[in-house]
Specification:
Elements: E1 2-5, H1 9-13, H2 17-28, E2 32-34, H3 44-48, H4 52-66, E3 71-74, H5 77-86, E4 94-96, H6 97-104, E5 117-120, H7 124-128, H8 135-141, E6 147-148, H9 163-167, H10 169-185, E7 190-193, H11 196-208, E8 214-217, H12 218-223
Helix pairs in contact: 6-8, 10-11
């Protein structure tokens, strides 16, 4: 299958290791992965800020850029959710990486080895917008050497929420503090998720507390 990679703004500027890892996993499974260089923001940032017209215009621009591909895969459930909301033409072909692997390809074991204790944070967008279900957990469960530690109150928000973290900094800080406490309770060495934005929020808080717990995108673990 010829797959196009929707890298996303955050992936491009701050976490390029996640889209690179996604390519590694897809190519390991025998798929050709293309990176359309004309891609820009999917419009989620504008949508979150209340600029819906501008968001829709950006999202619709992706139609021509990704029009010729069988599947459009992204290591970001929040961006996938935004595209699905604003671009009906390509929405049926846009997938978050884990749901693409499990639901579309029928693959759970991608040949990964990661000998560490890991906990998984199900992000708000992955749960309620992209609705990836248990695909990430099924993939993690098949990683050799990985010990999966259940996260207490897993479905609670980490407090990022795009503009929410900026406009409501005190509330956001309190929410991520709760999330970090839950992560530390698991004894995990690594916290993973399918959204770089939430990992940025959680990773920053864990780092400031000098906990020693790392954050890694799910794609990076699957590529290991």
């Amino acid at each position: 299958m010829r797959v196009a990679l929707l890298v996303t703004c955050l992936g491009d500027t701050m976490f390029p290791e996640a889209p690179r890892a996604a390519v590694t996993v897809l190519e390991r499974l025998g798929h050709e992965v293309a990176f359309p260089r004309d891609q820009t923001c999917c419009g989620q940032l504008h949508l979150n800020g209340g600029y819906r017209d501008e968001a829709v215009a950006l999202s619709r621009r992706l139609t021509g850029i990704f029009g010729g591909f069988e599947a459009i895969v992204s290591p970001s459930s929040s961006c996938v959710g935004a595209v699905r909301e604003m671009n009906a033409e390509i929405a049926p072909r846009v997938f978050e990486l884990s749901e693409f692997l499990v639901e579309q390809l029928g693959v759970e074991d991608v040949g990964a080895y990661f000998p560490h204790r890991v906990t998984y944070h199900p992000t708000c967008h992955s749960l309620r917008v992209a609705r990836v279900g248990d695909a990430p957990l099924r993939l993690l469960g098949a990683v050799r050497g990985l010990e999966l530690a259940p996260l207490p109150e897993a479905t609670e928000c980490c407090g990022f929420g795009g503009m929410f973290a900026v406009k409501n900094a005190d509330t956001s800080t309190a929410m991520v503090a709760d999330k970090c406490r839950a992560i530390l309770e698991t004894g995990a060495e690594v916290c993973t998720a399918v959204d770089g934005s939430c990992l940025m929020q959680i990773g920053g808080a864990l780092g400031r507390q000098q906990t020693g717990v790392r954050t890694m995108h799910l794609a990076e673990i699957l590529a290991s």
